[in-house]
Amino acid sequence: MAEAILVPQVGQDLTEAKIVELHVKLGDKVKKGDLVAVVESEKASFEVEAFSEGVVISLPWKVGDVATVLEPLMHVGSEGEVVAATATAAPAAQVAAPAAVPALVVAAPVGAAPVGASVVAEPVRVAEPVAAVAGGRRASPIARRVAFDHNLSVERIAGTGPKGAVVLRDVEGAIASAPAAGSLELRTLQSGQGTPVVFLHGFGADLSSWRPLVARVGLGSPMMALDLPGHGASQRHVAADFAALVDAVGRTLRGMHGGVHLVGHSLGAAVAAALTERGDLDVRSLTLISPAGLGASVDGDFVDGFLSAKSEGALQAWMRRLVSDPASLAPVLVRATLAARDEAGLVPAQARVARGVFEGSTQLFNVAAALRAYRGPCTVIAGRDDAIVPLREIEAAVPAHVALHRLDRVGHLPQVEAADLVQTLIARTVRSAG
Fold this sequence. Notes:
By secondary structure, the chain is of the alpha/beta class. It folds into two domains: 3-85, CATH 2.40.50.100; 181-432, Alpha/Beta hydrolase fold, catalytic domain (Rossmann fold), CATH 3.40.50. It is 29% helix and 20% strand. The chain has 15 helices and 20 strands. The strands form five sheets. A seven-stranded mixed sheet has the order 12-14-13-15-16-19-20, with helices on both faces. The longest helix has 14 residues, at 419-432. It holds the Pfam family E3_binding. Residues 2-77 form the Lipoyl-binding domain. Belongs to the 2-oxoacid dehydrogenase family. This is Alpha/beta fold hydrolase.
């Protein structure tokens, strides 16, 4: 089956990338790890690698084109295979968003996504005329007017219209998810119907790390995410300890009437479990990936090394601890993490969070009791080769009524090394809640 290699990008508000090099042409054979292209964002250039072996069967862009992020850069499949029309142009409304910024809690890498992945269609609307606004962001006149009326800047709203333009539905989504005073910003990653699924990243990442995984889950539910205090757009929110992290997220989510499904990774998974004890949030299901908070141990050397790394080589050396197979850590992901640190104050903010939740190689919080008390559908996914949070401590803490999936040859990032299985387990857990 053909697989799409997507256009990568870094940054929460960047929606386009320029194709500056193409190293393949139609009919060329590629194997996993081959350099196939170089794209350029506003901050840096990034190499794009093949994530599977096959033949280039679709190449919609040429050098010099400006492509929309997370749309197919090319398709790799079997010789003679034809790409379906719907796969050649994935709707920007579903995926136009920043790519993953991996770290201790990175989500699936920008790269291979199965052709025909299920997406939720928006109601048909008459196309809105768009025009560039100050700063270069394109927006329709009605989107600009409604944003102005609600004191919102279209420059800070992710566009899902043609070529990343901001249209009315984007502004309406931003209004609906506007944070209350003192809360975090909850963003919609994919629209849908029914009970929303909220993704919580962990230490060292931001909400954009979930976008590639969300595009593959195939649920019709609304998909949402937020940045934990000290991370991404929430780096100026102060949280002195784990309880403060949980409180900040809880304040943001408690207005979601009708329930919520929670998916978390590492530190984000611990926050998700702790939220079930608050009493002001109807948590319909839990999916916890490499959860922290179920034992005392954490790789403190990794945390310190990750925060102190300033060069690509140093960061790559530490990030290899996150995976079982170093080859699964694509160089573009290391560069993306490094580029995210251009944001002034990000690393100091993350260091403050680290001091509040870790002490050396010890976790200063525990959510095992919350997990034992929770009676909704719950799935725990952990790698047998996890060097950050030991599997043995997770196994000892997971109660009998919780489904525990132990993955062979997988480290702390199951969503990278076993992405297909992880997205299947997320969908199964959400659906089991009814």
